[in-house]
Amino acid sequence: MAAARSIASLSLSFGLVSIPVRLFSATESSATIRFHLLAPDGSRLEQQYVSKSTGKKVERAEMTKGYEFEKGKFVVFTPDELKALEESPSHLVEIVAFVPDKAVDPLYYDKAYFIAPDKRGGKPYSLLQRALQASGRCALASWNNKGKTCMVQIRATDDGMVFQQLLWSAEVRSLKDLDIEHAPVSAAELKLALQIIAQGESDSYDPDQYENVEQKRVLAAIDAKIEGQQIVAPAEESAPSGGQVIDLMDALRASLTGGAKKKASGGRATVAEVSPLPAAKRTRAVKRAEVPPAAAPAKRARK
Question: Which domains does the chain have, with CATH numbers?
Answer without folding.
Answer: 8-30+86-171 (2.40.290.10), 187-196+207-230+248-302 (no CATH)
